[in-house]
Fold these 4 entries.
Entry 1:
Amino acid sequence: MFSNKTEFKELFLRRLELLHGKPFSDSSLREQYETLGNMVREYISEKWISTNEKYRSHHQKQVYYLSIEFLLGKLLGQNLLNLGIKDIVEEGLSELGVSLFDLENMEEDAGLGNGGLGRLAACFLDSLASLNLPGHGMGIRYKHGLFEQKIVDGYQVELPEQWLKYGNVWEIRKADEAVEVAYWGKVETSFENERLVFRHVDAEKILAVPYDIPIAGFQTDTVNTLRLWSAEPLPNVSCQDVLKYKRNTEIVSEFLYPDDTHEEGKILRLKQQYFLVSASLQSIVSSYRKLNKSMKDFHHHVAIHINDTHPVLAIPELMRIFIDQEGMGWDEAWEITTKTISYTNHTTLAEALEKWPIHIFKPLLPRIYMIVEEINERFCRDLWDIFPGEWDRITNMAIIAHGVIKMAHLAIVGSYSVNGVAKIHSEILKQREMRQFFEIFPEKFNNKTNGITHRRWLLKANPELSRLITDVIGSNWVYKPEQLMELKRHAYDPAIKEKFLQVKQTRKQILANIIYEQNGIKVDEHSIFDVQVKRLHEYKRQLLNVFHIMYLYNRIKEDSSFTIYPRTFIFGAKASPGYYYAKKVIKLINSLADKVNEDPFVSQMIKVIFLENYRVSLAEKIFPAADVSEQISTASKEASGTGNMKFMMNGALTLGTLDGANIEILEEVGEDNIFIFGLKAEEVLNYYENGGYRSTEYYHHDPRIRKVIDQLMNGFFPDVEDEFEPIYDSLLSHNDQYFVLRDFASYVEAQEKVEKAYQNQSSWLEKAIINIAHSGYFSSDRTIQEYAKDIWNISPVRNTL
Ligand SMILES: *Cc1c(COP(=O)(O)O)cnc(C)c1O
């Protein structure tokens, strides 16, 4: 390959000509990007092959992380960084007159996820490889990832995302490892050689073709695999309507479902879930077979993790393979399956818990349904032994009841580990949502607080801050992020504070330029950058943020002596296309932005910016520039959050409720270095259980609230007459289920504290540095080491070339 700048340049020029059949001087940026991408993938390939050989020969336990989403973002920059060849490449290209930055921008984000859950999976892959752990991802190669968002007249418009339009340099199609996935048809049962045999006949089969993407660890020779499955028609299928068959097949991996908090119950989604699971398990079992070990030892060599319930059919599918293909009896198959599979719960929102109606499930997956039924019957029988006569309890806990299959129940019963994603979330699971399961399987429940890879979210996204940290404490933190704590000793050093300020200023200027390019608005780069970026959802309460800004607007208009420290409120959020209410909030943010930014007086103090198409690559520009991190979900609703961790790691201070990992951020940094407000989870849950909240009281008794709410309806926003009526109704007629009005006063007060604290620049900088120092705990390296030790029982395999 290449080991210095000169070799790189020579190879680059030669590869470009071979690949594109033209001289460098005639080549486009895209052709240059493709050339570089191919070179980097080939550079990785040597290590990839040797890692795989090592895994095969060492027979060490491997983990497979099954996830319906992987929100990877761009890969070129991360690969260059992890391989340690960024400087060679950057300098080499620069001598050819090419900017690496421009080439990185040619890559499309791999947006194969909605938000937190998919990004978590991507961070985990980076940590697994960087820690030399034998762990691989398996997912779906959606032809179209999450939609591209455009804002037109303040409304969200969705465009199909086209990340594969120019191909994908990182993937390798492995047609010879394709497997078949079977739907529909029926199950024939017969008695052969003294045992029951099940045959799935008249099935409609499709081909699952794997595309492998190498996942290179940071400064190590370990390269793991992300295997994404693509749905294709089987060759030589004889059927009446070939075109229809092709269409019905390819549609399975065509679109990512653009919602992670509502279960739609669509048959295509179930097809996708089984597609992922069946293809992945066949592939895992077939690799295991090549080791020539007994199937009885499967769980000693393989761990399979399911990221939320979307891949929960891994449980009956593994049973099917063991029983129908390996000839095992039920009890043995069940023992091995339940020692192989572990499960992460991501939410307690009732509307997000997956339930599949039997009338959809049973015809599509007849053999899988039989197995789920058998699991359910045996489980209910066990329950009867423990709780004889307690019909209600047994019906509540059953996997199948009232015509639906409860996927979370199947996940708990069929796995050996059930974890939540932050301390409070795991406690709510044990004490409330899953209490009855905790009572009978206490040993299964545990917590693994989420994390983020500091390599993407600090080292790559914020090179200026990374250099400063290394100047101050040396570079060990890069390998051991907990050593960021060394920074704490320097938090009070004026020279270091000054340098931190300069870095933050640089990053704010970069974001200000992006805002100007995209929105045509000049923001004051010395104002407080107050940021809320995340999916748009009622429970995340972008509305509370909006109401505070409306209140500030009103204050400024009413009282000419009222002044505030300049602030730029920045939003980024996609709403699920079918989520009517969330789209209203997007329109409201944009209407407010117009109102504020166009007012010559108000806009001297505050501005409101909505950045369209929030995604990983844009996020990498936003977090480094933030001063204030808005984490204002209704307490108990945000299982963990990971955006909160990215902000903290980049020196923004959290303004948040006691929800999800905010609580652990508070425990880390202490109450002087975070701004907490609002109802506690206990209080929210008690209101839900016992009533006692009346939103209209807050409307009537707080004139600030009344004014803001009235403005939704009284023509304050021109040309949008009834637009915000649904928001008005949800707050007053439907009693404000997310406690926006209840938490308003407390939020305003916290915002005033933020403003005051920011004006003491010296002390603000200390707080920011302390936040960075404590952010090491939230590296996904810590999270993954906990999974490896407590759940998966895997250990590092060193690959030395
Ligand atoms: C981190 C991240 C998320 C998750 O953000 P939360 O604030 O935890 O909801 C969503 N989308 C993108 C692009 C991210 O990078």
Note: Residues 115-116, 119, 534-535, 615-616, 619, 641-643, 646 surround pyridoxal-5'-phosphate (CB under 6 Å).
Entry 2:
Amino acid sequence: MKKVWQAAWLLKAITFIGLTTLSDDDTSSNVQRLCYKAKYTIREALLKSLNMCDKGLMTTAVYVYPTWVCDAVKALKAPGCTIPVASMPTGFPAGQTHLKTVLEEIILAVENGVTEIDVVINRTLVQTDQREALCDEICQFHKACGESHLKVILATGELGFLTHVYKASMIAMMAGSDFIKISTGKETVNATFPVAIVMLRAIRDFFWKTGNKVGFKPAGGIRSDKDSLACLSLVKEELGDEWLMPELFRIGASTLVSDIKRQIYHHVTGR
Ligand SMILES: *[C@@H]1O[C@H](CO)[C@@H](O)[C@H](O)[C@H]1NC(C)=O
Ligand SMILES: *[C@@H]1O[C@H](CO)[C@@H](O)[C@H](O)[C@H]1NC(C)=O
């Protein structure tokens, strides 16, 4: 029984994970391969034995650098394929790029068909408590995104205190962010449980105050299937089942997909 339960949760976890290629040497064929993997994450034979063939089980997004957006959009164009292309404009992960450049790149990426933008904040604004400036920065990201979804990366490993994490979360949500994301995965401190809980409580407080549901994305250093299940249950505990959908919950851990695939293979074949 326990094993069946676990396989079901692992399959669910797949639908919250995006596949990423953010390498210095990305090429068009790299990107196409990634898009193929995103569409056919779990082999059909395995899905058949789990009775999941018709459930449209796919990973939830494809992340590429802005240069490769057009290739990814093209590669994902297929009947029935709803996987969005996501991108992070210049400034990822350091947040040291001029705001104007970042905004221009967001606009260009959106024109090219990106429907999700992950953008880092200027950490100094949080560390020095410049709330209005932070709010203004994120409002401008939001405006540049237009209809595309904005995910604000708080890079919490560099914010110092948990009170900073809470404040930055609130400001990001007030400024129109659709998601708040823990980390770029490149900081020396990545996703931690205390930070995750503070952000989840901020999301809950924001929902109680405004009625708006904002999404949560733990990322950085989530490597095992156990980590991903822990994230799932944390969100379930703090926010409830209604948050367990790709519009409100993502796990930033593309390396995890192969681990989960292995586990599912093992579950089905016993090998
Ligand atoms: C980040 O904020 C600080 C403090 O206001 C500012 O001095 C710095 O120029 C900002 N960095 C960028 C890249 O805009
Ligand atoms: C944070 O995540 C990155 C990428 O997964 C990894 O290289 C780094 O070692 C992690 N840091 C910690 C402290 O786990």
Note: The beta strands are 18-21, 61-64, 85-87, 116-120, 149-153, 179-181, 215-217.
Entry 3:
Amino acid sequence: MPLSAELKNQHLEVTRRYFLQLGAAGAVAFKIHSAQADSDQSILDSATADMGYFTAQDDFGTVERGDPLPYKLPLAKRLEIGLERKSWKLDVIADPDSNSDIGNQFSSDSGNPFGFSHLMKLAEKHAVRFLKIMTCNNIGAPLGMGLWEGVPLRHIIWATKPKENIRRVFYYGHHNNDPKQMFRSSLPIGRVLEDPPGDNPVMLCYKLNGEWLTGKRGGPVRMLVPDAYGFKSVKWLKTVVLTNAYKANDTYAEANNDVDSWMKTMSRFYLKPAKAKAGEPIPVTGWAQVGVGGLSKVQIWVNPKDKELPEGDPYFTAAPWKDVKILPPPTHWGGGLPGGKLPDNVRFFDSNGRPKHWPMRYTLAHWAALIKGISPGIYDVRCRTVDQNGIAQPMPRPFRKSGRNTIQRFSLTIEA
Ligand SMILES: Nc1nc2c(c(=O)[nH]1)N[C@H]1C(S)=C(S)[C@@H](COP(=O)(O)O)O[C@H]1N2
Ligand SMILES: [Mo]
């Protein structure tokens, strides 16, 4: 599945402005009207001011199962089964097949589920907002970039008065009472109760980009696991089970996926022209997903197609890679946020709404480059990331089922 159309448009805007700032040559190569290329600083400034970053809810790529899909049920049915904010209920129970001891279960069967009003009460004190990119480990490009809001799951767990014999949290969404349709995931209890410094909490999420989470995005409430691939972020969440079982029970585990995988750092091309004229600067752009290892560089490598590749170097570590420009944080955030503005109290932003560091882990960074001075011929152009440990993509974790991160390539013909 490709990056969502909206994310592409945003990328185009951001990078177009970057080339404008580089001057007319880049702008012309980018097919911008000459009037715009000649524009003065004030036009440049205002252009930069409204660049977008987030993906609107409806424009996210989607990975979903269910027949019927829960959010497509008639309203009366959604109200009945608790898939509207008005009627949403969560069971938070001890695993009946385990010896977990909790003092205060939230259970529909016992008439005291955890409801949406409980969640909003906790939100008054504990709501958090953070940036996170949604990516499926089995898809080569992200599904969307969002500002997510919710209540850390640990607050609900502490409200159940857990006592002992709890090692994992299992959870699943509405599945039409058909076990075959159940989509399950799980986490170690430790990850839910504590966050590594600089990371965000696992949360019960009810808003995206300042709006209530839509049914399609998993509303009224989905799990949101900041550092993991999409399959941990279960939609239409209805049940959380505290268990002493020590093994994962994720639906995705059944399909050979590495369910303990942190998100990886990787780069993808967006603008990759098939042809260019010798002597003209060639704009090439893309984005980087910032995984657990962080991001220090994005690099490209332009190599004549007929040149033999060195043996025993499958990841081209010895190639003459060149750094490209990672673009600064946006000032207009897009995604449907009113006025393109971030709300207050976004994690890792200061009181002026500026990020404390950039790029941030588990988010998206845009990049751009101008290729110059190559002679006529056919070339392979590749891009890769280098993480904060100095390790280049696809290392340190090249295996496919822990998240796609192969080095991408395209063919470029330079005409005389
Ligand atoms: N209930 C439920 N939750 C789910 C899924 C699902 O099929 N059912 N798919 C998961 C997978 S595999 C991914 S990659 C993400 C995708 O999230 P999105 O559709 O909001 O982009 O949702 C996850 N949550
Ligand atoms: Mo997925």
Note: The chain has a mean pLDDT of 90.
Entry 4:
Amino acid sequence: MYDFPDQRGHFGPYGGVFVSETLMYALEELKETYAKFQHDPEFIAEFNSELKHFVGRPSPIYHAKRWSDEIGGAQIYFKREDLNHTGAHKINNVIGQALLAKRMGKPRIIAETGAGQHGVATATICARFGLECIIYMGSVDVERQAQNIYRMRLLGATVVPVESGSKTLKDALNEAMRDWVTNVENTFYIIGTVAGPHPYPAMVRDFQSVIGTECITQMPEMTGRQPDYVLACVGGGSNAMGIFYPYINYPDVKLIGVEAAGDGIATGRHAAALCAGTPGVLHGNRTYLIQDANGQIMETHSVSAGLDYPGVGPEHAWLKDINRAQYTAVTDDDALEAFHNCCRIEGIIPALETSHAIAYACQLAKTLPKDQTILVNLSGRGDKDMHTVAQHTKVKL
Ligand SMILES: *Cc1c(COP(=O)(O)O)cnc(C)c1O
């Protein structure tokens, strides 16, 4: 029976709590609160009610039949997280954390965001629950993501551009940490993926595991059995852990995470921490990182902003080491090709992040017989990516 992390947040040699002493109190408080409410029937009922009435869960599973027929191999199925309110899986997790914030009596929420998707999800739930919302974002990212900034402001959030360092995600993260230390009495820090110090990786995984739990009932209803393969794209790794976790104790189900190979692993311009990185410490936990020989974090690249992160959640590092999940990577070009095919053949515009997982599903399906099934977590819709796709296709909007 798989039972990780341990009491101190370790997934084997990964995870843990690598933070300054000033943050230890806040993390202890969060750990105790989560332990208290995690199995509380009233908390679970409220979480499920929000997922049903605000998010629209359960999300359906869809058989991509036309595409599967065209490929002529395994049958491909999509878990439709793109149909959630706000268009992706991120909302599942922010609801869980916001409910904890309410129970802790903390009316002020902070978060950091790179592409803006986690910022929008957080601003959404703060509006829903009447919580104050401050979003830290590198000033370079603020320039690049004008639409998401406007969304957050419409939802009532304050967006704080961060001018230090490279003015991107890691600088926004440092700023959010500083804010948290200073205002811990009334402030809850909502992290958007399965990374950060314990208890975040386990807590975010638990909130997202509603995805896989639904699949475990839905797949037998649709196909008579569990899938042979479960695939998901991996940035920080939250949509992947959400669909993988409930399947870990089904040894016949193969789990495959798909990272961003950018221009190709060999070019060095990628974001594939598990496929091409080495273990180290970043953002409060030990995990695989894209770093140089001196342990300096290197610049990453991906066409999808949501996969463009130099680390990965520590549980994925562990699943890789114990060989329970496999990890592979897909280039920008292959992801874009899968994006266009998915639009044309299935009538679904997927997020560019998701398109990485879809691209690998197609490659894999070709090698398998027709009675095998591949379940892909369709983590989000692609409306946010129109500009990027048009630019790469040399179309002027
Ligand atoms: C943010 C995002 C991702 C990447 O984050 P994970 O934590 O790896 O899931 C993937 N897909 C979509 C649609 C996203 O918005």
Note: The chain has two domains: 21-50+90-204, 59-87+209-392.
